[in-house]
Amino acid sequence: MSEMDNEKYIAIKKNDWIIILVLLLLPLLIKTIYAFVPSKEVYYQIKHYKNNSEIIENIEPSKSNESLTVQGKIGSMIIELDNEKGVRVASSTCPCLVCVNCGWTKNEALICVPNAVVVQPINKTAADKVDAITR
Amino acid sequence: MDNNTIIEEKNKDLETPVEELPEFEKKRIKKKLILSSITVLLLVLFSSWFYVHGDSLFFSDIRFLMNTAYTIKVYGIKGYLGMQAAFKKIDEIEKQTSFYKESSGLYTLNKTGKYEYNFNNKYKRDLLREIAIQAKFMYENTNGYFDPSFATLHEIYGFHTPEKIGRLPSEQELEGSLLKCGYSNVLHINENDLTIASGSMIDFGGIVGGVSIIYAREILKAAGCKAFLIDDAGDIWFQGEKPDKSPWKVAVRDPRDGGSLAFIESRTPLAISTSGDYERYVVVDGKRYGHIMDPKTGIPADYYDSVTVVTLDPIQSDVLSTALFAMPPDKAYKFAEEKNIAALFLDKNGKITVTPRGKLYFSKIKE
Q: Which candidate, A52, A97, A106, A56, places its Cα nearest to that of A78?
């Protein structure tokens, strides 16, 4: 290997400096992007089962005013989303139907214990945001 | 070659100047130095960020444990690690105290009438024995309105069927079952075992939530978690200062419309529990019967829609909300006032009553 080749191989080139700079500025860049691009303020996090494995899905507001079927441990459930009312479990295969009886909610997690399904409304700007609900 | 010539040659060797590193080698070292410096700088930056913001990281998880949904919310990486250990412990507690799981000590007690303590563990303690002692203390201090032996009554109302198909027992059946209730009379806490009267059953469901919160709390504290909230399906404990310095805020659910009856805001640790008949019940001829029994009549208590209690101890709040729910209104309010309990009652007519101590904790109470 000639000296020229070695030099070509080892020298810090302009591109290296760009990568280093990007690495150093990356956290700042991400923070800036987050500051300017508004994140979804309201969405629904649904923890349910698909092919016997637990999955977490985020349903965004653009998909509101719709109903979707999710699979629980013992059967399926129909979840309804509404821009005005929030979210509710419209029907469930569980025997106790506690989740259905909870009705519409905008800030409370709907939990179906027999189906092991959780529907959690995430509202980042709600004035009445609470850490927990005793019931 | 003579000796002098040899010496001269050797000296000449020694005088040879050290050969300079080739240019490319120097550059390689320079590059390595720069890259190492940048790595160290990034590490320092990350560590500083982590030092400043590490405790602000928020983690939350819901697990299906204790026959319900169990939520833990924590701040900080230490909290996250503690949360995993706490869930593991709650799972262990469930395995020992479950009413339904055949492997549990409680199941053995109900099935065979006897449970032998197991001290073969790190702490040389038996969890079921400790819960039995705590439950006895609470049974005596609530004049029998908290009674784990109500499981005997649950049986005749059909609460233990998987489909929750209820039935109304006959008067004779009710009288017979009431004779098998009375925790202190039917459960015997012996030196080496627990024994139970024939035909009686015990369910620690009304106290084990509070017990599990205490275990989870101690694990999170030991892990170094500075701010956390534990929520066993509405039995809540919180402590520590949140990173944004705001107080913890808990809503009391209005069972009639799903809204909020009141709020509890606090920066100091509190235990909050609510008892109601809208989650565990059986339906007979279209009428709903809740799982909390009035010990004097053996009939499901039907005085309130919900009772919420705020205390400084998770076991007390868990048990007292159940006991107050089972008491007739005149007794319940007097009992809460005398014992200086912070409680909020929502009666069947929608009337909200708050005890004097409750006024210190409940705010924005629904009109």
A: A97
